[in-house]
Structure formats: C-alpha cells, structure tokens
Amino acid sequence: xxxxxxxxxxxxxxxxxxxxxxxxxxxxxxxxxxxxxxxxxxxxxxxxxxxxxxxxxxxxxxxxxxxxxxxxxxxxxxxxxxxxxxxxxxxxxxxxxxxxxxxxxxxxxxxxxxxxxxxxxxxxxxxxxxxxxxxxxxxxxxxxxxxxxxxxxxxxxxxxxxxxxxxxxxxxxxxxxxxxxxxxxxxxxxxxxxxxxxxxxxxxxxxxxxxxxxxxxxxxxxxxxxxxxxxxxxxxxxxxx
Length: 241
Hints:
Distance between the termini: 96 Å
Helix content: 40-55%
Number of helices: 12
Shape: elongated
Strand content: under 5%
Radius of gyration: 27 Å
Structural class: mainly alpha
C-alpha cells in the first residue's frame, strides 16, 4: 500500500507540469545587463537616432566610412559611455547614469568599428577629428559662401537642395564638435557631401573647416527656444525689480 501511495504521489506531481496554462520549458531569460549581442544592443540603444545598421536617421550615420576613419575607438567609447552634454546624445554607461555595462559599451564600439572600410580613406588626407586651433567666425562667413551656400542658401536658411543650418533649434541641439564632424564627414545618406566634394576639385583646408564651424557656432542663439523679442523686452523690467 505504501508503494501504491508513493507511486500515485509521483504521478500527481508529474502531471502538475502538464497543467493547462503552465509555461513549458523555454530558454532561460537573459538579464538585460548580460546581453552581449551587438545587434540587440545597437537596435535597442542606438538605432532610434542613428538608423538601422548605422545608416543614419535623426543623427549621423555611424557606418559612414569617413566618420569611422575620423573617429577612433576612444572617441566612440567616450561618446557612447558619457554622452554629449547639452545635446540629444545621452550617456549609456551605468557609471554615468545609463543602463549599459562597460562590457556592453565595448561590444557596441566593436560592432560599429566592424562597419569601417580601412582602405577607403587611405589617400584622403583626412582632417583631424578635433580642431587644432580655434577658427575665425569672420573668415568663416567667406568660407561658408564658397563651400556651403550653393546648397544651404546665401544666409544659411536653406534651399531645395539643403536644409537650414542656422536654425536656432538645430544649433541648440548639436555640439561644436558635431558641427565639425558633419562638415568633414558629410551626411551622404541625405545627399550632403564630405569636406572634399563641396566644390569640385577643391577640398576644404583644415583652416577652412575650423573657420566655418566658428561661423556656425556664432549663429547659435544665446537663449534657444525662447521668444527672443519678448525676452529682451522683459529684461529691463526684471532688472528694475
């Protein structure tokens, strides 16, 4: 009798695993901070701004070979981990308040680097990622007319060939370095050429790039998003209080 009861108990416990609605055997769920698949990490954290496969979206195409020749691994890691203050690029590293571990940051950097074509820029005389010296905004106005105005208009307000690049909201959302990066690498996915192709047969010199970036920075409004005329009218009144 004891054997019969024991056998019945075993059968009852086994049957519980097949009850309707009970989850069947499945792969173990991976913790978010243990995901090390580049495709998953990129899709969930980067593609919203930089597009599927790094082909560009609201922000620069990370698979652009000129960009990848310009930005080394330390740049990619610094921007991914720490973000860019004052812009739409957030910090993703847990040490900076984000959700990704250092290993996950390394996976993202390695995956983006795998899109590079090392031989593509071998003879391009690529400018430096960071400006070696500050540019001159006054000279930059002339550089803009020479290299940029044919697409973006005489005053930078845009034409059918190119968007406005002096819009206050746009300039408030991008860093000085981002402007330099775009001038050098272009936005080929949007039809914007890199620094070699604005004027046929005449690439921009390093000083040209620094100067036109300085001119663009000078167009950035001091109070982005504010009704400027109203603000200026209120300042004397507020100062008297």
